[in-house]
Here is the input.
Amino acid sequence: MADLVERFVIRHLTGAKANQVEEFDYSKYAELSFGRAANNDIRFDPERDSAVSREHGKIVKDASQPFSFSVVNNNSRNGIFVNKTRISGSAVLQPGDEVQLGPGGPSFQFDLNPRPASLMMSTRLVDLPGVMPTSEMSVNSLGGLLEEVPPTSIPHKTGLGKQTVERMISTERRKTSRSVGMGAAVFLLVLSGLGYIFRDKLISTKTVVVQQASVLPTKVDNGQTPEQIAAANTSKVVFIEFGYKLTYTPTGDDIYHEYMPVRQKDGSIRNVAMYITTESGQIEPLLGLKRNVPVGRPIAMSGASGTGFVVSPQGHILTNRHIAAAWHSYYDFPEDAFPGVLLVDGPSGWDVDPIRVVEPFSWVPAETQFFGKKPMSGKVIEGVNTYMDVTFNKNEQRFPAQGKPIISPKHDVAMIKVDLAETLTPVKLRNADKDIAAGQAVTVMGYPGISPDVLVGEYGQDFGNRNAQIVKVPDVTVTPGNVGKVLRGQTTGKAAGYYSEFGDYYQLTVNATGAGNSGGPTFDREGNVVGIFTASTSRNDATRITFAVPIKYGLELMGRRQVVD
Here is the structure.
């Protein structure tokens, strides 16, 4: 009977993948893993689904019993709920059950297609008794208690004869006609009197209205619609896939975060991440060369994506710094990096602090001060992109970015370049920093990860490889909105003033987008790029706002500070 089931079905209810459906071949999967890591079968958004652990859990098929399943918690940080109930370790899972990953985290419904008849929910037949009068509830004003008021008896209705009803209707019609006629006469009489008394004012008012209407200018709207902006710029917005690693510049070796084996109370061994405190009091991971670290994790990232846009005919592309050079932004530690142990430099050398436990914190790899257990002298570590591929909208060909990215020292902006045989058409840029204001219309374009993928299947034409290829093809998303607020960062050299601690950004009301859209162009109503979409923030009550970097920082990377027509 098991072969009657064709697919596992995962219907995402909430979270970054809400309203999406994923299906898996029932015969090929004995279990389905889920989490934020790229190797999971059911992968959640690393940025927006923050309640999900990297290896959160899995759904397991019982091979000994048909259509028997369980969900297993892989010691996740926030746990698993099945049908709103927290599970411990593992629990039985049936088709139709709802699984939630942590309190307030994303949820999905587990199902089978087709669902076996033995697992169909039975239809309940409910006998409906005679209609009973509804009891009313009143509040006891003294004690605040609810007490039930007995139902009032319903009197028996006596029917009326046909002739009686007709006489009643005829009488009411005659009364209504007389009332309406008298009312209309009185209204006309009063209106005539008022018109005679205020005749001069009424004539004057009418004249003024006519004169004003004759001089009002006709409103001309020269702005473009989001549809027109998209049509003119779709081919200029690119999809970027990337990964990076941290390296030791003198030798090119990979840099690892060092762990130490610690014996637990039950006798088992757990590898615990080690951290140190710098001279300035900052906590950093203990770093070392791969060949010198017995147990550790590489400082690296892969499987990430973002957006960019063409700014020169030669193939220059503006995007975010956290895409082109991600080591200049906060590092996403693996799940097992916390809690960690802190090493302190004491009289007998470096030793574990028995009191302090290291909990999650923010760290930028490019700003590391220590290497090994010594302060760094000179630039001995550097991030290197292991790959950075650029794909144009609805195109299958990946073009590798050439050379090192040019990054801004001031903001989340960078520039990369691709070499193509053809000349590209760039977007139009405008430094709107002086006249941009809250309420102005904007349009954002990009490739948010929450948007469903578009796949294309093609047969190879090479006689040495005729296998069919399934390729993910980027399909740009257009999201209109407005400027919600203009945030100004603190100006260098000024100790006080009106500024935002968040930095120099345009706060947007563009909320139907997210991770993956970073680096996308933000257009004004004339179709000029005035900002670079960069980040979003949200709360548990679903409140969400987004941000764009002013395009002036991108113009600086291009060696230009004026408007580009």
About this structure: Confidence is low (pLDDT under 50) at residues 121-173, 175-180, 200-221, 561-565. The CA atoms of residues 11 and 210 lie 62 Å apart.
